[in-house]
Structures are given as structure tokens and as C-alpha cells.
Amino acid sequence: MTGAAALLRGALRLLRSGRRRTLLAAAGVLVAGAMAGAALTVSVGLGSGFDRSAERADLPDVVARFADQPPERIRARITALPNVAAYAPRTEIANVRLRAGGESTRRGSLQLVDTTARRGYAIVAGRDLPRTGGNTREALVEQGLARTWGLEVGDTIEVGRAGPVRIVGVSIAPDNVAFPLATAPRVYLSGTALAREFGGELRVNQALVWTHDRSRTDVTLQQARATTYGVGNLRFVTRTGTRLIIDQAAGVVVALLVAFSLVALIAATTMLAAQAATEVGRRLAVIGVQRALGVPRGAVAGEQALSAGIVGLVAGGIGVTLGALLVRGPSGDLLAALNETPPGSALLLPLAGLTVLLGLIAAVAAGWPAWRAAGRPPVALLRGGGLAARAPRRRAGGPGRAGFLGLGARLALARPGRAGATVVVLAASGGVILLMLGLASLLTALRDDPTAVGTRYALTVTAPAGGAAAVRRVPGVADAGTRVETRGVDSFALGEPVKLTTFGGDVGRFVNPPLADGRRVQGTGEVEIGTGLSTALGLGVGGTLAVQLQSGAELRLRVVGTVRALQDDGRVAFARSDRLLAADPSLTPDLAVRLERGADRAVVAARLAAIGATPTNVAGATTSNRSFLDTLATVLRAVALLDGLVCLYALVQALALTARERRPTLALLRAQGAGTGTVLRVLLGAGLVLALPGALAAFALQRLVFAPLVAQLAAGYADLGTAASPAAVAAVTAGFVLFAVVAAGWVARRVVAEPPVHGLREG
Amino acid sequence: MIAARGLVKTYGSGRAARRVLDGADLDVARGEVVAIVGRSGTGKSTLLHLVGALDRPEAGTIEVAGERVDGRSERELSGFRRRRIGFVFQFFHLVPELTGEENVLLPARLPGAPRGAREHGRELIERLGLGDAARRRPHELSGGEQQRLAVARALVLDPPVLLADEPTGNLDEESGAAVLALLRSAATADRAVVVVTHEPRTSAMADRTVTLVDGRLQPAEPLLFGGGR
Ligand SMILES: Nc1ncnc2c1ncn2[C@@H]1O[C@H](COP(=O)(O)OP(=O)(O)O)[C@@H](O)[C@H]1O
Ligand SMILES: [Mg+2]
Predict the structure, then answer these.
(1) Does residue A207 register a pLDDT over 80?
(2) In this structure, is residue A380 part of a structural domain?
(3) Tell me: the pLDDT tens digits for A105-132?
(4) Into how many domains does chain B fold?
């Protein structure tokens, strides 16, 4: 025990003796901690969000949807199935008009709840509909609607023909994303109360099913399909199916953030190790004395490790907390958009673990060089061992034309190992920053630019005299072809809307969203459907899509592929026009217009209008998702900011180490009459020789590694422009130069704050 | 050329405080070489550093070439060092990344250095026969060559005062003699040279020798040191 106490005392003495170095190391750990804490907060939130929220909401394992049925019939069929633990009937009325607080929509989804059964949602404000049924003037609204429209418990909402009802609670259910990300906001009324009031029984069109053994849900579903003949338009949605869709989106974000926090941790470790190595180099003689006096090797290293570990733990804890707080708001918004609840106290354990990890990293980074040094014979250490000025390897390059900047560069490069490590850290962080900027512009693109999500045409026009050929001749137009677009409903599951977009020729000429399954449309009679439609209808490759058109005619197409289209919640289908025009000759084709790369949409639109082709802009995929994208961008921006701090820290640290190691050289310059400006120039040279290659390596890293990686991760969603824009490259370069200036200025101020004699006495 | 009065410098604080200089006075005239002797640890380097404006005294005044040194800002001090002082150290302090010539010309690159300084530096190299050493890096040179380069560096901006702190302490007899000769010849009509040493042969070449005892300077005992010319 006394040994441990001595160790602790030694460690604390070390900390006190180098307060400034301690602060710098602490700053590094703090920044890395903030970065990792932020990433962890978002990752844990999103990663476990579905399961946690599903648990809390008591989400059913299967939701069966079917045409209206008497409740008794459904109850009999379902309770007869094996593995069913509980069952709740539900009646959904689509496209109900909702109005409250000056806002309104015609796409409300009214859910009539059997209050005696399990609910499958969680209450986040107010109270639930009472088990006894309550009355018909009370409603629950989903959180997304409450947030978007600014509704609170106690407000009134008008619900279709039911008229004004009072909101008694706010609910969430993670089986779908929240309004407005999902187009139909949900409102719940007591079906039990309605039935009582009208003295009849409600017909149901949904059944919520909870199983005993979730892993055997598949078997239950098979049985259900076999025994529910006679129930029209039967479709099932399982919990895993739901989870898959929601997780894919979150997965991209989580993967990115985890990668970023790894970068931050690596950066911190590298810089800490570099600092520790310098520190140990400086203290070789002291270590030599300790060893000569018989202090065991482990104790020497332990003292270093413990002092660094204490700093790591404290600074790491502060950093992790700051990072977590910084992204708590945006990440909560993100979760809300996914209808998931924030992790709350479940986050504490991972954050504490992260803090401990930071402490350990700091301890190892500091203890290792000390352990190695202490292994050498004490005599060698006392003679100053490795500190003897190393012969510089490079030949002199004549009188340095770059003057003091050049001298600074040489000073930094005199330690190739550290210079390399710093460049690597800068490159990794810079690459991530570039990626962030790229993603930010991608998010904007997703919102505004249809080509980012697989729609290759930016305009549609009414056919002018001269047809497509005339349009193709307009400057800025790359291609034009006929297009017919119409909305219909699935004829098996009435009420499931489908947007059908068809083209005169090859479909791939105008749309190419990423393929999820199967292949692209080639012939007439074939169709690609969005994953949204595929999930809603339970329809896959090889199935038949039957669309009831507005004219009443029915069109049947064979599904050859499913695509990850974002438009209209993925309830889209792409095919060739022939069959559609044959089924409904009243439809008039327009022309889809593809622009040349770099052409200005507005300019081309004006030219088209001039030849009599009235243009319409094609919107990006996600006009209703603005807030979701903005939230995502905020999260990414917060991370990018922290990442910039990592760069700044790395530079300050590298320059501070150089200044400390070359204290005699800097003091000598000052003895010759060099002022603050010259010292600054030397340090700036040292900074630039690290920052500029760092920036270059960052571009390379972003281009060759990060961008392809993210493109792969995000392949399901969008066609990422992988090259960083010149503006982003310029911004990062300028940022790095600025960081070098700031770091050099800061370190230079510290250097000239002491009289030159201190550096010269070190000799 | 140098007039220092009542210099006080204390290291440490509280019970560990030690007054190294306690009212030291120093006067050096133009063209004069003064040797400061004294036992190790008596504060000779400290005195030189104060005169060269590398550190600040707690009390006392310093005037060098008509310029007051005490009570000036760091910015003014760096200008003062550039214009008025040439410094030579025991451990040479050449920058290992630079060649001999680059080291000599380093002060000539400073902002505010006079125009002809570089030419002057090359001439010095030539005159001191350091042409060969000037093309090499310090680690390839002997101690004597390094120290002669250091003297050339101290003279590049043609300062009125040259301060040398044990310039031969790390050299063998022969190269030490060469360096001393160089310092002696640097004491031209309008330059004063102060050399800190504990070697008799150094004070032998000085015009005058003073001893630092108990924080004050006093004329050296002629018995111990040759003294005079
Ligand atoms: N920065 C300092 N902090 C504390 N003590 C110092 C410092 N610099 C010098 N000393 C002490 O002051 C005394 C005089 O030092 P110095 O001027 O180098 O003596 P000399 O050059 O005569 O050998 C010595 O005892 C030395 O240990
Ligand atoms: Mg001395």
C-alpha cells in the first residue's frame, strides 16, 4: 500500500512540475473526449434507439393489414394461431382531414383503438386513453405531429367528421418514422368509446400481434397466411422488417460517427505519445538517477503512466461530458424524427467506459516510452543517452532562401517521426472535415437536386412543336424523351397509393436509383418498384404489381427489381410507357429533360419556355424532410467543429514540443536580436511544413478512402458526388494555414514571455 | 562603452533565495578587453547576461553604447541586442540544421539588419579562413572551428560590444589560443570586449581583469592573475 502511495505522490509531483505541458496534454484529451463523447451519444442513441423504443412502446411483432372485417372473425382466426401471446384489433382510416392551430392536412391517419387491448405505442406526454374506453372527445396525437404543429396536451384538434376533440396525450411508436418525415400523421381515438356511443361494433382492418417467441415469428406468419383465406388483401409487416428500414438510415450516420471518433482517438493517442516521448527524453538523467538509486523499472514507468492517466481521466471526463451535451439536442431531434426515444441514463455507462478508456490510453501512451527508457543501463541514461544532438540526416540545401520560415521547417523536420505523426493526424482529421463538408452539400443536394437521388432529369416540359427533337437542340439539354406519370392505387390493397412514372424508351436514361434487389427494367410489361412500395405491399422481385388507374382501368406489371428511391416514401414504380398508354389512352405524355453537366437549370428552362415548351422543375426527393436533413446537418457540423479543434490541437502540440525541444535554438536567435516576429516566423515555418502536407494528404485520404467508403455505406440512398468541391478544398487549406498561424502565434507568445537566458542555460 | 551600476540579481525565493549579484558595478571603455574571473557559481554568466539584455536585473542601471537597457520592453530589448551586442557562448550554440555560413549569416537575415551585413559576414568567413568550415554542418566541425564561426556570427552586425562567456572552456589549448586571438583582434577602436573566464591565459591577454566576489566586482589580485598588458 505504501508503494502505491509513493507512486501516487511521484505522479502528482510530475504533474505539478510541468503544469503547462500538463494543460496541453489535458486539452488534447479533452478535445478527443468531446469528439468521442459526441459520437458515442449519437451512436448509442441511434444504434439502440429502435430496440429501446420498441420495448418502451410495446411494439407488436407483427401487424397484419386487411380489408375491413368483423372483429370477432379476426379474433377467432388469430387466437387460433400458435405462438400468439396477445392480440389487439385496430381500425385505421386513411386520408382524414386534420386541423389544429392554423395548420391542416388531408392525409391524417386516424387510428381507432380497442382500449381493452395492448396498445403498441408509448405515451411521452399527458395520459393514455383509459382502459375503460373513456369518451369519443379525447385523442392522442403522435409526437411528430405535436412537434411540427406545436400542439400540447389540452389543445384541440379537428379530426375529420369526428370534429374537434381534446388532445389528452402524445404518443410515439417506432414502427414508422415521424411526421413530417412520414407523410401521414397519426391521431388515436378510442374505438371502444365510439362503438359504445353508436351501439354497434367497429369493423377492423388491422391486427397487432405479439408472439411468445419472437424468433419463431416466421412460422406464425406462414400459418397465418394458410388459415386466413377469405380475408381480402392480407399483408403483414414484421418488427424486423420495420427495424431494417429505419436502421439503414441511422446506420450510415452511426458508421460515420464511429469512424470519426476513432480518428479523434487515434489523433489524441499519437499526439500524447509524441509528447510523452519528448518528456521522457528530457528526463532521461532523472530517470537514470532513479534507476541508479534502485527504483524498479515498473515504478519509473508507473509514475509516468499514473500522472498521465490522472490527466486523461479528468480531462477525458470533462471532454466526454461536453461532447455529449453538445450533440444531445440535435441527436434527440434525430431520434424524435425516427419516433425513437433518447437513451437517457442508459448512456451513462458507455460514457463512463469511454472516459476510463481515455485515461488508459493516456497512461499507456506516457508509460510506454518511460518503460523503454528505464530499461537502459543507468550509466547511459546519466550520460544523457538519446538527448545528444542527433546528426541531421539531410544535406544542407545551401543558404535557405526561405529564411526563418525555412529554418522553422527544418526544425520541425529534424524530428521525422513526430512530424510524420502530426501530418497523419492532420490528414485524418482534415479528410473527415472534407467529408463533412461533402456530406453537408449532399444534404442540400438531397433536398433540392433530383439527380442526387437517382432522378436524372431536372425538368419536365410540355411537348413543343417539333417534339423531343426540338428540345434536344436547346443548348444545355443533354437528352429529352417522353414521360407519362400518373398516380394510382394498388388494386389488391386499396388505399396504398402508387406513383407510376413511365418513359418512352429506355427507363435507365432518365432514372437510375440504386438497385436493392433484382435488375433494371428492360422490356415492356416489367416494372421497378421503390422499397417503400415493396414493403407496404409485401411485394418482391417476381411478383406482380397491379395498379388501379384513375380511369378505372387496371395495369399489371411484373416486378423485376426493387430500387431505393426516396421520393414519395419510396411508393414509386418505374416502367416503359407502352402498357400504361394502352390501358389509359387519355393520359398525355410530357418530356423529361436531362441537363448537361454544369448547365444552369433556370437558364435552360427560360430557353425551353422560349420555344413553347413550358418547363416544370423536378423537385428533390425529400421536400417534406427538410427538418430531418437540417438536423442531420447540425449533428455533422458539430462533429466537424470538434474535428477542427483536433487539428488545431495537433498543431499547437507539435509546435509546443518543437519549441520546447529547440529552446536553446530559439533562445540563441533571440540573443542575436530576433524579436517576436522572427520567432513567430520560425514557428510558422514549422507549422506550415506540417499543415500543408497534412492538407494534401487530407485531400488524398478523402478522395481515395473516405469518399468511396461513404459512397458505399450510403449506396442505398444516394449517388454521392465523391470529389470534394474546389471550395471545400480551398476552405480546408485556408483553415489549416489559419490553424498554423494561430498555433505559431500562441506558442511564439509563450516563447518570448521568458527571458532568452533560460533557453541558453540549458545548453 | 559599458557602464553598469549597482546590479542586483537573486535566484530562488524565501529561505532558498540567493543573491548572486549584490551591487555589482562594471565599466568598460572602447577598445578595451576586460576579463571577468571568479570561482564557478559566483554569478559571472549572470552578470554577462544582464549586460547583454538576455535577462533583467532586480535593481541597478545598465548603459551600453549610450543606450539604457534597464526598464525597456521585450520588443525594445530584442532591437537592442541586434544593434549593440554580439554574444559568444561556451557551448557555441550553432544551429545543427544549418551550415557554417548559414549560421554566421543568421543575424544578417533578421528584420532591421543593415544592408551590407551579408557581405560583411562572407568577408569575415574569408578573413578568418573559415571558407571550408562554412560549407559544412556543425557536427562535422571541430570545437575550435565551431567557436570561430560563433565569433564570426557575433560580429556579423558589427556590434559595439562583444560578450564572451567562457569561450575556450570547451576547447583544447591550441584552438583556444586561436579563439582568444580572434577576440583580442575584435577589440577595435570602437568596440569593447568582455570575456568571462577562469583560465589565467585568458586574463593574460586582457587589458584589465576584474574578480567577482560576493556579488561585487573588484580589481583582480595581481599575484594570482598576470594582470595588465
Ligand atoms: N535560472 C536559475 N535559477 C536558479 N539559480 C540559478 C539560475 N541560473 C543560475 N543560477 C545560480 O546562480 C549562481 C550563479 O550562476 P552563474 O552566473 O552561472 O555562475 P558562473 O557563471 O559564475 O559559474 C549559481 O549558483 C547558479 O546555480
Ligand atoms: Mg558561467
Answers:
(1) yes
(2) yes
(3) 888 899 999 989 899 999 999 999 999 8
(4) 1
Same domain, A175 and A67: yes
Task: Give the span between the Cα atoms of A299 and A291, in whole angstroms.
Answer: 10
**pTM for the full predicted model:** 0.68
Mean pLDDT calculated for residue range B11-37: 91
Does residue A241 sit in the same domain as residue A166? yes
- Rounded-to-integer distance, Cα A179 and Cα A626, Å: 12
Three-state secondary structure readout of A623-668: HHHHHHHHHHHHHHHHHHHHHHHHHHHHHHHHHHHHHHHCHHHHHH
B137 contacts in A (CB within 8 Å)?
A: 391-392, 396
pLDDT digits (tens, 9 = 90+) for A522-544: 988 999 998 778 877 778 899 99
Question: 3-class SS at B147?
Answer: helix
Tell me, in angstroms, the distance from the centre of ligand 2 to residue A201's CA. 105
Is the distance from CB of A405 to CB of A412 less than 8 angstroms? no
Q: With an 8 Å Cβ cutoff, are B80 and A673 in contact?
A: yes
Q: Which among B36, B17, B41, B14 has a CA at the least distance from the CA of B25?
A: B36
Please indicate, yes or no, whether residues A119 and A191 belong to a single structural domain of this protein: yes
- Of all protein residues, whose CA lies closest to atom 7 belonging to ligand 1? B11
Residues with CB under 6 A from ligand 1: A 761; B 11-12, 20, 38, 40-46
Higher pLDDT, A491 or B207: B207
- pLDDT of A741 reads 96
A156 & A276 share domain:
no
Query: In angstroms, rounded to a whole number, what is the distance separating the alpha carbons of residues A427 and A311?
Result: 26
Q: Ligand 1 atom 5: the closest Cα is on which residue?
A: B11
Kindly give the number of the ligand 1 atom that is closest to the alpha carbon of B39: 22
- A124 & A263 share domain: no
Q: Which of A569, A588, A619 is a domain's end point?
A: A619
Looking at the structure, tell me whether residues A148 and A87 fall in a common domain.
Answer: yes
Residue-wise pLDDT for B97-106, tens only, equals: 889 999 999 9
**pLDDT value of position A385:** 44
Q: Determine the average pLDDT of the residues in A373-386.
A: 69
**Considering the domain boundaries, does residue B224 fall inside one?**
no
- Which ligand is located closest to the Cα atom of residue B11? 1
Q: Is residue A214, in this structure, part of any structural domain at all?
A: yes
Q: Are residues A207 and A124 in the same domain?
A: yes
More confidently predicted of A376 and A405: A405
- Residue B41, in any domain of the structure: yes
pLDDT at residue B211 greater than cutoff 60: yes
One domain for residues A460 and A578: yes
Q: Which ligand is nearest to the CA of A761?
A: 1
CATH number at residue B94: 3.40.50.300
- Contacts of residue B110 in chain A, CB cutoff 8 Å? 672-674, 678
B201 within a domain of the structure (yes/no):
yes
Q: Which grid coordinates are listed for A321? A: 461530458
In a domain, A394, yes or no: no
| Final residue in a domain of this structure, among A245, A267, A301 | A245
Q: In this predicted structure, what is the pLDDT of residue B6?
A: 94
Residues of A near B (Cβ–Cβ under 8 Å) read 389, 391-392, 396, 398-400, 403-404, 407, 410-411, 414, 664-665, 668-678, 752, 755-757, 760-761, 763
Beta strands in A393-472 (DSSP E): 459-461
Q: How many CB atoms lie within 10 A of CB A535?
A: 20
A162 CB neighbour count, 10 Å cutoff: 18
Grid cell listed for B21: 549579484
Residue B229 lies in a domain: no
Distance CA B41, CA A115 (A): 94
For residue A754, the ligand closest to its alpha carbon is 1
In a domain, A320, yes or no: yes
- Structural domain that includes position B147: 2-219
| Partner residue opposite B110 with nearest CB, options A396, A399, A672 | A672
Tell me how many domains chain A contains: 4
What rounded mean pLDDT belongs to chain A? 81
Closest CA to A752 of A656, A662, A670: A670
- Note down the domain range covering A5: 1-55+246-388
